[in-house]
Amino acid sequence: MSEQFDVVVIGAGPAGYHAAIRAAQLGLKTACIDAALGKDGKPALGGTCLRVGCIPSKALLDSSRQYWNLQHLFGEHGISADNAKIDVGTMVGRKDKIVKQFTGGIAMLFKANKVTPFYGFGTLHPGNIVKVKQHDGSEVELKGTNVIIAAGSDSIELPFAKFDGDKIVDNVGALDFTEVPKRLGVIGAGVIGLELGSVWKRLGAEVTILEALPDFLAVADAEVAKTAAKEFKKQGLEIKLGAKVSKAEVQKDGVHLTYNDGKADQQLVVDKLLVAVGRRAASKGLLAEGTGVKLNERGQIEVDEHCHTGVDGVWAVGDCVRGPMLAHKGFEEGIAVAELIAGLPGHVNFDTIPWVIYTEPEIAWVGQTEQQLKAEGTPYKTGSFPFAAIGRAVAMGEPAGFVKVIAHAETDRVLGLHLVGVGVSELVHEGVLTMEFKGSADDLARICHAHPTLSEAIHDAAMAVDKRAIHKAN
């Protein structure tokens, strides 16, 4: 006999737990299923993001940044410290404590909102039946008037570089090194490769990132990518583009890599290898025969613009469906679906989803790049402003980078905001808000920004769109 719910959510990552909590807030009897266990072997809600992704990586990024600044930046302030050391065990322990705090926080939110959690692996069967294989081997059966699939994603494994949890790792392993590797190899110069490569570089590792594509961060604005690459090079982060890895062999002295640089095969030996070539939808074992839910060629669940699968009462959100694999995209989809189920309007605007890479300097953007606008023939104009001319940035000793505002050449409507520099993960939301409210570059230029702040770079960049910036030659 199955237990009946209004909503059954499969997955308690960002998309799933938002969907579950919002559904419960709207008076729907809600269950949420999750299979993940923490380091202590106990259930740990929050998905990849909270356990082994966004949150723990930011904890290590912050720790490593403090250590790097102590050695490279504090001297400018007249602060000296001899024989600075990093205790990796303490740093990782701090990260684990933060993770436990937040995963426990989700459990408390479930309790407060009367969401019923089930711990185990959920499989969807025909008729909106979800069977949950629990960790003790027992099985429970749930029936949902609505089922929301929020299964998340897994790291992509290369056939010649299988994860062993020691020498060859994914993001999970790279968050838990017990000591700083002397030589760290990274396959993939995407978000994960750059962020975790930065962590261990700041702590003293020799880091080499091998990227198969010929362009660095092709998804970002070309000028932003160029500036970021220059700063990473200054930091000693070696990034080899057009480097296609074909072999990774674990030997006594390390992992032996073979890659082609476009001219000939090259060799590289590293102590640890992080494979960060992307993620794929975690759809394996998720769907029993006959559900009617379809997967595309990438293993993602097919959905319409409202995240509905086409099967009555079955929805899917987050990393296991189309669109960017970003936690905040999953947040919004989960909430939107819960509201649609409750008969309310629910919508996610993909055009205003911000992107952030938490390197040093940070990289962030929202909207279209110049490359995209050129390709589609949209007339546009731009204005940019460097942080080197912003008093607050210089006073902080963080002058690298700039802000670029892109507006439609005829209507002046903001089409994109692209930033590289200190704190831009927070500043990018000025662009999100402006675009959501259909604002213009002139609107941004006429909004009073406090002085001295980093946000003035956005103000000046917006003024520069019409060549009226005060603090730079137009």
From TrEMBL:
InterPro entries: Class-I_Pyr_Nuc-Dis_Oxidored, FAD/NAD-bd_sf, FAD/NAD-binding_dom, FAD/NAD-linked_Rdtase_dimer_sf, Lipoamide_DH, Pyr_nuc-diS_OxRdtase, Pyr_nucl-diS_OxRdtase_dimer, Pyr_OxRdtase_I_AS. The active site is a redox-active disulfide bond. It catalyses: N(6)-[(R)-dihydrolipoyl]-L-lysyl-[protein] + NAD(+) = N(6)-[(R)-lipoyl]-L-lysyl-[protein] + NADH + H(+). The active site is at H451. This is Dihydrolipoyl dehydrogenase. It comes from Lysobacter antibioticus. Disulfide bonds join C49-C54. Residues 5-334 form the FAD/NAD(P)-binding domain. GO terms for cellular component: cytoplasm. Belongs to the class-I pyridine nucleotide-disulfide oxidoreductase family. NAD(+) binds at G188, A189, G190, V191, I192, G193, L194, E195, E211, G278. Signal peptide: none annotated. GO terms for molecular function: dihydrolipoyl dehydrogenase (NADH) activity; flavin adenine dinucleotide binding. Binds 1 FAD per subunit. It comes from the Bacteria. FAD binds at K58, G122, D319, M325, L326, A327, H328. One of its GO terms (biological process) is 2-oxoglutarate metabolic process. Transmembrane segments: none annotated. Pfam families: Pyr_redox_2, Pyr_redox_dim. It is an enzyme of class 1 (oxidoreductase). Its EC number is 1.8.1.4. It is found in: Cytoplasm. Its cofactor is FAD. Residues 353-461 form the Pyridine nucleotide-disulphide oxidoreductase dimerisation domain. Coiled coil: none annotated.
